[in-house]
Amino acid sequence: MRYTSTRDNNILLEGSQAIIQGISEDGGLFVPEEFKKIRLEDLLDMDYQELAYEILGSFFTDFSEESLRESIKNAYDRKFTHEEIAPLTQVGEMFILELFHGPTLAFKDMALSILPYLLKEAKEINAIEEEIVILTATSGDTGKAALEGFADVEGTRIVVFYPEEGVSKIQKLQMDTQEGDNTLVVGIDGNFDHAQDGVKKIFNDDSFRELLRGNNFMFSSANSINIGRLVPQIIYYFASYIELLKEGKIEDGEEINIVVPTGNFGNILAAYYGKRMGLPINKLISASNENKVISDFIQTGVYDRRRELNLTSSPSMDILISSNLERLLYHLGYKDQELEELMDDLASKGIYKIDKKELDEFYSGYSTDEEVEATIKRIFEDHDYLLDTHTAVGIDVYRKYRDETGDRTKTIVASTASPFKFGGAVAEAVGIDTENRGDFEIIEELAQKTGTPIPRGVMELEDKEIIHKNKCERDGMEEEIKRFLGLGDSDD
Ligand SMILES: *Cc1c(COP(=O)(O)O)cnc(C)c1O
Question: Which of 9, 203, 325, 452 is the most buried (most CB within 10 A)?
Answer without folding.
Answer: 325
